[in-house]
Amino acid sequence: MRTHNLFTDAEPPHEGERVDTLLSHKNLVVERIVSSSAITPREYVQPQDEWVVLVKGEAVLQVAGQSIALKPGDHLFLPAGVPHTVERTSHGAMWLAVHLYPAQAAASDVTFHPDTPGAYGHR
């Protein structure tokens, strides 16, 4: 079994966010998100629960009308259906996002992402 490093190939894009899927297993998806400081705020209302942790950098989210400032190590649970927007991020902010989809929306048993740098998974 190979190990991978979350910080390998983690350069931020010039604008927006870069999302790398690290693991898809049943109804669980784990993503690494690397943000630039030039993002366009967009409201998300998702059918799945999401747990995020800010690994490095800073960010400000708007969650159900409440402004929440995050620093490294801060984590937040976003229940399905709750509107949320990433308002601001520092350049190079890095997140881990864990999405838990409803069981009926489950993906295949395991999807490994070998072309994603640092991808985790089993076959």
UniProtKB/TrEMBL annotation:
Residues 40-94 form the Cupin type-2 domain. InterPro entries: Cupin_2, RmlC-like_jellyroll, RmlC_Cupin_sf. CDD domains: cupin_reut_a1446. It holds the Pfam family Cupin_2. SUPFAM superfamilies: RmlC-like cupins (SSF51182). This is Cupin domain protein.
